[in-house]
C-alpha cells in the first residue's frame, strides 16, 4: 500500500510511455547519425546543456501541480543571475584569489536564492491573496522581474567574474558534470518533497480540487505561497547555472527556455489542471527533449524551425493526454451527476 | 395499452439507460396524455432525472422506444424535443438575470423564428400574451434578477408557453415556494391543463402537487415500482413506494440532563444572508436547521465553519471565542463541516480513498522535516473507513469509483478522524441510496451518544425528525421557529416551514 495517488501498474503509467519515447528518440537519433550523436563529446555536451532548462521545468512542475503555472521563471532566473553577477563583479572582480572569491560566490548564490524566494513570494501573494489567475499574474510579474534586471544592467551583459564562478557550470566531479549533479539533487529533493511530505500531499490535493481543500481546512494560502517560493528558488538556481556557463549575466538570456520548460512539464505527464505530476516523468521528458534538440542541431535545423517544432509538440502532447486521461479532467471541470 | 398510446403526447416503452455499467433506468414505460399532470416521484438516484433527460433529448437511451406527439422519435436531441413542444424548467430556472422579463420570455421564440433582426415590440407582445395566459401581472421591463423566486418561476413558465409548449416538465417546483405561492402555482397549472398543456412534476416532495395531478409514477433504483391515479396516493404511501420500506426510524434518545453547552452562537449576522442568529448546542445534542431554498440555511452553515465571514456576532466553542471567517480556526476549535455538494466541495475525486480521509490528519502524522509517517497514517484512515463500513475493495482506488453513500462516509471519516467537538452536516444524505441514508442517520445518533454536538442542515423533513432533538426553522435569513424534534409531525413542520 502506498500514498502514491492514482494506482496503476508501471507499464500502464504515463511515465512508462515516456521511458519508451525517450529511448525511441535516442535510438532514432543514434541511427540517423551514429558517429556524431553517440560520440563521447556529444553526450558530454548534452549533459552540460540540459540541466539549466531542466531546473526551470522543475519549477514549472510544482506550480502546475496546483493547477497554476509560473511564466516568470526566466525573468526570475535572469534577475537572480544579474544580482549575483553584480555582486561578483563589483565586490569580487576577475583578479580575486580563489579563497576569498569562494566566500563572495557563496554570498552571491545566497543573494540570488533570496531574490528567487522574494519573487516567488510576490507571485504566490498575487495568486493566493488577490486571487489572480496564475497565468496572468506570473506573465505580468515576469515582465517586471525582467524590467528590473534591465534597469540594473542597462540591458548589457554583466561579466568579469572570479575564475571560481565558472566551476558551477563547466567542471565535472568524478566525471559527472556539476550542473547535472545539481539538477539530480534538486530533482530528487522535489520528488521527496512531493511524495513523502505532508506539504507534497497538500499540493497534490489542492491541485485535484482547490475547493475541497478549502473545505477540508487545508491552509491553502500557505500552500500556494510555499509552492511559488519554491518555484522562484528553483528558477534562481537555474539562473546561476546559466550565469556560470555563459560566464556572464544578462536580462534576456534563455528566453526560449520558457516554452521549453512548459513543454517538458506537460510532456512529463504533469496535469496542467493540477493534481497529478511525477518528477521521474519530468526527468524522462527532459532527456527526450535534449536528445531531440541535439539531433535537430546535428541535422542543422534552424533555430526558428526548432521553436515551431516545440510549439507543435506541446499542443500535440496535450491533445494526446486529453484523450488518454481526458475523462478525469472533464469530470472535474463539470461534475456529471447521474441520477 | 396501445389505444392509450395512440393519443398520448409522450409514450415511452421499455426505456433502459445504462451509464458505464450502471443501470440508471430499467425497462420503464411512461405515458403522458395531453392536458394531464403527472407526478414523477423518486428519491435521489432513482432515475427520475435520467428519464427527464431522455424525454428532453439530452441523453440517448440504451434500449426502448420513444413517441412524442404521436410520432416515433428514433433520433432525439434537445432541439427536436423542444420543437415537439417539450419544455423543461430546471430548479434554477436557467433565466438570464441581467435581462428584462419580456426579453427572457421572448428570447427563445425569437431565436427559433430565425429572423436576423431583433423586434422589441414583437417581443413585448409575445411576453404579454404569455403572462395573460397564466393570468399573472409582472412588470415587463423589470430585470429578472430583482424578482422574487416565485416570480422567476412564473417567468420561466411563460417562456415555455411562448415557445408553444405542449408539455412542461418542472424540476422540484415547490422547494423554494411558500404555501401561498404554491397555491398560486397550482391555480396556474389548472389553467394550463384546461389549455391542453401537460405537466410533469419531478420531485421527492410531492404532497403539495398531488391535488392537481391525475397520475403518479414512482421510480426506485431505475424501475417503475408504482403507477396509479393521484387520488390513490398520500404522503405515506408515496414515501413507502419511494423508499421501499415502512420506515418510522427510531427517533433519537433524549439528551442526557445536565449536558454542558458545547457551542454558543450570538447575534451572528451577514448582510443579505442571515441575521440575529442565536443558539446554543449541548454536548450530545443533534440540532436540526431547516428552511426553504434561499432561507439562508447554507450561508449560516458555511459561516459556522468560517467559509463565509459574518458581519458581526460571535461563535464560541467550549466557552472560547472562535475567529469567524476562517475555516482553519474553526477546524482547530473542533468544528467539522461536511459540505452540501460532495462532488465539488467534499471530495478530491481523482485521488485515492485513503488520501481523501488522510488529508484531515496530515499535521498529526508529519514527523521531522514534514516527512509523513505513511504507514501510521494509512492505518488510521483505513481504521476509520472500516468503522464507518465504507464498502471499498481497494482503498487506493480513486474515490470517484465509490457510490454516493460510500463517498459521503469517506467525507465523514475524514472529519471523525479529527475527533471534532461539533460536527456540521449540510444535507447529509443528498444523493445517497435509501440504505445508506438510514446508516448515516444511525451514525449521527452514535456520534451524539458519544457526546459530540451535531448540527444537521437539511430540507428533508423526515430526516430531521429522525435525527434531531431540536429543530430551528429559518425564513428570510432569520430563525422564525424552534421546535422539539419529538413534538411535531412532518405535516406540522412543513407548514411552519412554508407558511
TrEMBL record, chain A:
Coiled-coil portions: none
Q: Which residues cross the membrane?
A: 16-34, 46-64, 71-91, 103-130, 174-194, 223-243, 255-273, 279-296, 308-330
* Signal peptide (UniProt feature, chain positions): none
Whether Endoplasmic reticulum counts among this entry's keywords is no
Protein's membrane topology? Multi-pass membrane protein
Q: What is its main location?
A: membrane
What is the name listed in the Swiss-Prot or TrEMBL entry for this protein? Monosaccharide ABC transporter membrane protein (CUT2 family)
From TrEMBL, chain B:
The upper taxonomy is: Bacteria, Pseudomonadati, Pseudomonadota, Alphaproteobacteria, Hyphomicrobiales
One Pfam entry for this protein is: ABC_tran
Name of the molecule in the record: Monosaccharide ABC transporter ATP-binding protein (CUT2 family)
Q: Which InterPro entries match?
A: AAA+_ATPase, ABC_carbohydrate_import_ATPase, ABC_transporter-like_ATP-bd, ABC_transporter-like_CS, P-loop_NTPase
The record's family statement is: Belongs to the ABC transporter superfamily.
Where does the ABC transporter domain start and stop, copy by copy?
10-246, 257-499
Q: Does the keyword Flavoprotein apply?
A: no
Q: Does the keyword ATP-binding apply?
A: yes
Task: Give this protein's Gene Ontology molecular function annotations.
Answer: ATP binding; ATP hydrolysis activity
* Taxonomy, superkingdom: Bacteria
Keywords, A to Z, come to:
ATP-binding, Cell membrane, Membrane, Nucleotide-binding, Repeat, Sugar transport, Translocase, Transport
PANTHER family from the entry? CARBOHYDRATE TRANSPORT ATP-BINDING PROTEIN MG119-RELATED, XYLOSE IMPORT ATP-BINDING PROTEIN XYLG
Amino acid at each position: 500500500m502506498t500514498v502514491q495517488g492514482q494506482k496503476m501498474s508501471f507499464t500502464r503509467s504515463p511515465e512508462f510511455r515516456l521511458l519508451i519515447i525517450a529511448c525511441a528518440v535516442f535510438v532514432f537519433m543514434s541511427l540517423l547519425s551514429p558517429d556524431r550523436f553517440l560520440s563521447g563529446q556529444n553526450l558530454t555536451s548534452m549533459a552540460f546543456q540540459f540541466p539549466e532548462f531542466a531546473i526551470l521545468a522543475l519549477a514549472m512542475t510544482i506550480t502546475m501541480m496546483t493547477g497554476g503555472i509560473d511564466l516568470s521563471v526566466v525573468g526570475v532566473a535572469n534577475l537572480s543571475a544579474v544580482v549575483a553577477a553584480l555582486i561578483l563583479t563589483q565586490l569580487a572582480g576577475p583578479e580575486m584569489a580563489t579563497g576569498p572569491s569562494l566566500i563572495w560566490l557563496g554570498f552571491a548564490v545566497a543573494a540570488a536564492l533570496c531574490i528567487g524566494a522574494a519573487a516567488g513570494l510576490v507571485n504566490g501573494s498575487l495568486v493566493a491573496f488577490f486571487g489572480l489567475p496564475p497565468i496572468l499574474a506570473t506573465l505580468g510579474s515576469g515582465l517586471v522581474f525582467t524590467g528590473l534586471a534591465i534597469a540594473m544592467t542597462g540591458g548589457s551583459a554583466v561579466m568579469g567574474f572570479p575564475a571560481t564562478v565558472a566551476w558551477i557550470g563547466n567542471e565535472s566531479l568524478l566525471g559527472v558534470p556539476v550542473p547535472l549533479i545539481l539538477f539530480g539533487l534538486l530533482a530528487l529533493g522535489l520528488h521527496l518533497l512531493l511524495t513523502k511530505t505532508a506539504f507534497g500531499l497538500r499540493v497534490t490535493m489542492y491541485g485535484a480540487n482547490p475547493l475541497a481543500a478549502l473545505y477540508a481546512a487545508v491552509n491553502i494560502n500557505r500552500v500556494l505561497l510555499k509552492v511559488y517560493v519554491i518555484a522562484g528558488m528553483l528558477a534562481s538556481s537555474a539562473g546561476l547555472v546559466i550565469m556560470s556557463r555563459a560566464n556572464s549575466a544578462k536580462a534576456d538570456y534563455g528566453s526560449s527556455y520558457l516554452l521549453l520548460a512548459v513543454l517538458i512539464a506537460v510532456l512529463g505527464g504533469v496535469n496542467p489542471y493540477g493534481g497529478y505530476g511525477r518528477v521521474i516523468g519530468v526527468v524522462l521528458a527532459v532527456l527526450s527533449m535534449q536528445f531531440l534538440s541535439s539531433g535537430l542541431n546535428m541535422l542543422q535545423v534552424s533555430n526558428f524551425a526548432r521553436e515551431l517544432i516545440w510549439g507543435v509538440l506541446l499542443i500535440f502532447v496535450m491533445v494526446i493526454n486529453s484523450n488518454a486521461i481526458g475523462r478525469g479532467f472533464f469530470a472535474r471541470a463539470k461534475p456529471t451527476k447521474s441520477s | 395499452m396501445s389505444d392509450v398510446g395512440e393519443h398520448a403526447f409522450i409514450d415511452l416503452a421499455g426505456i433502459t439507460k445504462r451509464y458505464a455499467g450502471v443501470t440508471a433506468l430499467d425497462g420503464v414505460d411512461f405515458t403522458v396524455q395531453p392536458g394531464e399532470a403527472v407526478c414523477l416521484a423518486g428519491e435521489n438516484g432513482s432515475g427520475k432525472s435520467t428519464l427527464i433527460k431522455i424525454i428532453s433529448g439530452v441523453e440517448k437511451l440504451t434500449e426502448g422506444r420513444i413517441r412524442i406527439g404521436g410520432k416515433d422519435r428514433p433520433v432525439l436531441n434537445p432541439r427536436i424535443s423542444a420543437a415537439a413542444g417539450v419544455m423543461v424548467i430546471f430548479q434554477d430556472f436557467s433565466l438570464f438575470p441581467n435581462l428584462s422579463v419580456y426579453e427572457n420570455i421572448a428570447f427563445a421564440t425569437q431565436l427559433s423564428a430565425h429572423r436576423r433582426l431583433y423586434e422589441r415590440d414583437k417581443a413585448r407582445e409575445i411576453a404579454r400574451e404569455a403572462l395573460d395566459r397564466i393570468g399573472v401581472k409582472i412588470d415587463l421591463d423589470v430585470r429578472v434578477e430583482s424578482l422574487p423566486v416565485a416570480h422567476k418561476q412564473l417567468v420561466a413558465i411563460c417562456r415555455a408557453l411562448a415557445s408553444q409548449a405542449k408539455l412542461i416538465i418542472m424540476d422540484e417546483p415547490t422547494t423554494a415556494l411558500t404555501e401561498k405561492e404554491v397555491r398560486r402555482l397550482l391555480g396556474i397549472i389548472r389553467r394550463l391543463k384546461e389549455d391542453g398543456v401537460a405537466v410533469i412534476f419531478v420531485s421527492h416532495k410531492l404532497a403539495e402537487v398531488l391535488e392537481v395531478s391525475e397520475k403518479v409514477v414512482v421510480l426506485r433504483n431505475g424501475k417503475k415500482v408504482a403507477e396509479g391515479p393521484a387520488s390513490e396516493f398520500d404522503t405515506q404511501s408515496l414515501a413507502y413506494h419511494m423508499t421501499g420500506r415502512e420506515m418510522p426510524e427510531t427517533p433519537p434518545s433524549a439528551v442526557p440532563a445536565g449536558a454542558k453547552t458545547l457551542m454558543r452562537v450570538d447575534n451572528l449576522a451577514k448582510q443579505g444572508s442571515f441575521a440575529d442568529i442565536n443558539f446554543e448546542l449541548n454536548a450530545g445534542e443533534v440540532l436540526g436547521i431547516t428552511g426553504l431554498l434561499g432561507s439562508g440555511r447554507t450561508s449560516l452553515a458555511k459561516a459556522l465553519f468560517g467559509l463565509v465571514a459574518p458581519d458581526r456576532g460571535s461563535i464560541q466553542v467550549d466557552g472560547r471565542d472562535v475567529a469567524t471567517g476562517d475555516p482553519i480556526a474553526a477546524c482547530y476549535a473542533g468544528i467539522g463541516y461536511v459540505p452540501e455538494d460532495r462532488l465539488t466541495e467534499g471530495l478530491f475525486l481523482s485521488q485515492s480513498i485513503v488520501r481523501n480521509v488522510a488529508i484531515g490528519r496530515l499535521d498529526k502524522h508529519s514527523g521531522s522535516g514534514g516527512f509523513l509517517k505513511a504507514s501510521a497514517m494509512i492505518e488510521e484512515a483505513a481504521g476509520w473507513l472500516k468503522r464507518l463500513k465504507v464498502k471499498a475493495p481497494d482503498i487506493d482506488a480513486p474515490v470517484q469509483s465509490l457510490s454516493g453513500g460510500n463517498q459521503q462516509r469517506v467525507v465523514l471519516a475524514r472529519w471523525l478522524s479529527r475527533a471534532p467537538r461539533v460536527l456540521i452536516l449540510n444535507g447529509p444524505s443528498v444523493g445517497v441510496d435509501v440504505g445508506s441514508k438510514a446508516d448515516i442517520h444511525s451514525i449521527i445518533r452514535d456520534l451524539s451518544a458519544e457526546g459530540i454536538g451535531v448540527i444537521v442542515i437539511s430540507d428533508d423533513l423526515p430526516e430531521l425528525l429522525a435525527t434531531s432533538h431540536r429543530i430551528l426553522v429559518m425564513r428570510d435569513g432569520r430563525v422564525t421557529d424552534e421546535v422539539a424534534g419529538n413534538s411535531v409531525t412532518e405535516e406540522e413542520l412543513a407548514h411552519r416551514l412554508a407558511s
